[in-house]
Amino acid sequence: MVEIAVMGHGVVGSGVVEVIVGNRENITNHAKEDINVKYILDLRDFPDTLYANKFIKDFNIILNDPDVRIVVETMGGIHPAYEYVKACLQAGKSVVTSNKELVAAKGAELLAIAKEKNVNFLFEASVGGGIPILRPISQCLAANEVYDIAGILNGTTNYILTKMIHEHTPFDKALETAQKKGFAERNPEADIEGHDACRKICILASLSFGEHIYPENVHTEGISKITSEDVDYAASGDYSIKLIGRARRHNDSKVEAWVAPALVPSTCQLSTVDGVFNGIIVWGNVIGEVMFYGKGAGKLPTASAVVADVIDCVKHLKSRKYLFWRDGSTSDIKDYSESKTAMYVRVCGKNAKDAVKNVYGEVKPLHRENQPDDELAFVTDIFTIKDHEHKMEELKTQGARVLGSLRVF
Ligand code: HSE
């Protein structure tokens, strides 16, 4: 029998306990040991649950109980999750977490402690919810040098964009529906402004490239400025607008990492990832391109990944699974202004068409219903972000108003 503790009884934590109790036989078969949830840590009371006698409010009970070998952290946020996880690892307990904010901010430090103490720190559920992605990258693709990863990493924004694309719902209304359905939180900023996707691409990049990529060094844009007009123009050119997170290692070893809405051509599989689903493409020098797709959020898909990590910890109580990256610095990161991309640009004004011709030459216009005569949208050739910024300044100088611009994937 292996005793575990679960810290946090929210959506994911309660799912973890349900899965461990409900799927006991199957889990025991896989782990070759019985797993028992000894404690559930939460500040709230849950008198009506089946496990009411397991609830505790004092973290030290878990920390000081030598029988607890594995601790699951599903509290979310950095504090006090960081202090608790660090203390557990230092005490020689393995830790499993679904907390992407924690891993993106403190992963290198916590992995180093796990290595020193010869215990496991696993976090499959932190990226892509129920989609297996970290273990495939670190184990199944181990023969590869992974050099590029791109994905739709946030289900909330993908749900909103899908409603805008397929049902012509304006952004505000689509967000409201997402909130009503429980896909978006009452304060949706972390999802809408791209921070959640940024944390996930940081974890993927750190694992793939071996050095910690910190969220504050990654250019991050959200979807709140996307309009129905942008969606319609994109559709006329056979593109879907998706919030993409990308991390690519260049030949000089620097990592280009960003999160931004982008026009994805219909020939790319990411354009067909709709609703709350996530899709992640990984490029390796042996395998070429491989895509992962599935439910990136939700109680049971996320619990599925957490419990699989718990089983892995049980099977490796005396040895450490190889999952590691070193600390990193800003010198590992390519300046975003050097990132190269084609750009969708939307302008208006009576001089707009002449200005576009002067700055970009002939362009192939995109179209939308009820398009005003003085409005023009088009896709540019590939330039660096720095050059795009200069060109857009030039457009303004020549009397065009830039209504929007987005990367093309
Ligand atoms: N808010 C996140 C999403 C939850 O929408 O993808 C899963 O990380």
Structural summary, described in words:
The chain has 409 residues and is of the alpha/beta class. It folds into 3 domains: 2-130 and 299-326, NAD(P)-binding Rossmann-like Domain (Rossmann fold), CATH 3.40.50; 135-294, 2-Layer Sandwich (Dihydrodipicolinate Reductase, domain 2), CATH 3.30.360.10; 336-408, Alpha-Beta Plaits (2-Layer Sandwich). The chain is 37% helix and 24% strand. The protein is built from 14 helices and 17 strands. The strands form 2 sheets. Strands 7, 8, 9, 10, 11, 12, 13, 14, 15, 16 and 17 form an 11-stranded mixed beta sheet that branches. Strands 3-2-1-4-5-6 form a 6-stranded parallel beta sheet, with helices on both faces. Strand 5 (94-97), helix 5 and strand 6 form a beta-alpha-beta unit. Helix 1 (11-22) packs across helix 12. The longest helix has 18 residues, at 100-117. The radius of gyration is 23 Å and the shape is elongated. The site of L-homoserine (HSE) has 8 residues, from helix 7.
| Total E-strand runs | 17
State the helix count.
14
In CATH, the topology of the largest domain is named Dihydrodipicolinate Reductase, domain 2
Quote the beta fraction.
15-25%
The CATH first-level class of the largest domain comes to: Alpha Beta
